[in-house]
Amino acid sequence: TYGQLGDGTYSGRNNPTSIVDGEMLSDIPQKIAVGANHSCAIGYSTSTLYCWGSNKYGQLGIGTHGITTNKNSPVTAYDLEITYAVEVALGENHTCVILYSTHHIKCWGDNTYGQLGDGSNVYKLSSNAATSLSSNVAGTVSPAAMIATGANHTCALFAGTTAPHCWGKNTSEQLGNGNSIDQNIPQLTTAPNPFNMALGDDHTCVIDTSKEISCWGSSLNDRLAKNPYRWINIEKLPSQLLSHQCYPIKVNIYNYIDSSYADSGQGFDITLSATNSDGSTNSDFVFYTADNCTAPIATPTQIYGTKPLYVKYTGPESGYKNLKISATSSVSHLNSYSQLVNFEMNGSNINSNFSIQLARDTVKENSNACIPVQLSTINSNGSTRIQNTTLSINILENRAGEFYLTSNCLGISTTTVSVPANQSQSMFFYKPSPATGEDIITVNSIPHKLKVVPN
To answer: 200 and 193 in contact (C-beta within 8 Å)?
Structure first.
């Protein structure tokens, strides 16, 4: 009726039907959530949030609301921050996410009962209009480890707390704060140390770290959401790397409940991998245990809280590639981690050969000529692209000629020529020997001859 099936129609279906791409295009979905009459998914390659279905209260996050703005195919939720959504949860008519970059919570859509948690009861039409939520009276915005939504209430676990906060409708005491008054800001509950939460229409359930289930509200139900409180992440992984170079990284299992690393005495099996933009595995990206990148790690590898590792791209030496680096675990209460990385695969200095081309091959004696010389680089794979560092090349000469960086061959002579970063050519100048004979200029062990002839 509202387009919540995302198949391009407003008709019901009695068999599973694939959604149409809409604005999702070829983006592969990695997480999905449904509300009463709308649906949302997080894309794999970009972590973009896509939503479809009812938009009566602005729950799709597209900046508009009303039944005429319902969507029957995926559309992109507004706000650049949502490009990095890591978790999404949907209520009856509202949407909440945890942002990837900050782990802050933003909610939008219906706010009749305060379910957006922003201190008001005014609905919001997009995450851009939403407020990052606070877990304390002082109003300091706090990162969150998990988010869950019921029909008209929301719960989250904020960093630095050992119990969830809940807000929104509370007529059945589903917020767990000891009363039945609706709340439009997060309220601390008494349920300790949760690592999973699930919310119904009028009740809430959590499972704590000792595997005990607690529920409150209008009825009991042991249906549990899968929202981890421990997070895997990778530190020091640059957004751009050169191929065939060894980089240090650090893999962490981080506990957002008390803002610390997970218990160092408890090891977890973590699988590290790299995938191409089409989702296929890229085996050229290798993780190592030694700082010289000679000992590849086992798969999976044991992580105790935090572990220093090293990484190197061992594939082709030319071109660029977008990769997604992931750390995953088979443990149910550990989330996965992923990061987009742009690789510049352009070889290393030792794989580059150099050649020169003189503007002339003959010059008269005592002419005081100043001859342009073009230096070119060619990588071992045949490409002329070099890595983004300046290269210094030594040049040799057998007689009394001199090299200069200026076109008039004045100033101080040199025996070293630089090729600027991200370039494959450079120009220098040669002043030949004054006497007749044969000057030999040597670059990369290859001689280049210049004849000095009589007048």
So the answer is: no
Pick left, alpha or beta for residue 319 (phi over 0 → left; psi -120 to 50 → alpha; otherwise beta): left
More confident residue, 260 or 58: 58
> Between the CA of residue 145 and those of 5, 24, 231, 258, 431, what are the distances in Å?
29, 26, 8, 11, 68
> Is 114:50 a contact under the CB 8 Å cutoff?
no
Which 8-state DSSP code applies to residue 246? -
- For 365-377, the pLDDT digits (tens) are 988 899 988 887 7
pTM of the model: 0.50
Is residue 19's pLDDT more than 70?
yes
pLDDT score of 154: 95
Angle value at C-alpha 128, between 340 and 198, nearest 5 degrees: 75
Task: Please give the C-alpha separations between residue 42 and each of 366, 372, 418, in angstroms, as whole numbers.
Answer: 74, 57, 47
Question: How far apart, in whole angstroms, are the C-alpha atoms of residue 106 and residue 79?
Answer: 11
Q: Write out pLDDT tens, residues 274-299.
A: 887 677 888 888 888 887 788 888 87
Quick one: tokens of 257? Answer: 């409940």
The predicted-structure confidence for 68-88, as pLDDT tens digits, reads as follows 999 999 998 877 455 578 899
Q: Which amino acid is at 289?
A: T
CA-nearest of 374, 366, 344 to 434 is 366
CA angle 302, 224, 200 (to 5 degrees): 150
Residue with tokens 């149910």: 332
User: Cα(175)–Cα(168) distance, rounded to whole angstroms?
Assistant: 8
Instruction: Give the residue among 170, 144, 168, 174 at the shortest CA–CA distance from 156.
Output: 144
Q: d(Cα 263, Cα 267) in Å, to the nearest integer?
A: 8
Strands 94-99 and 85-90: antiparallel
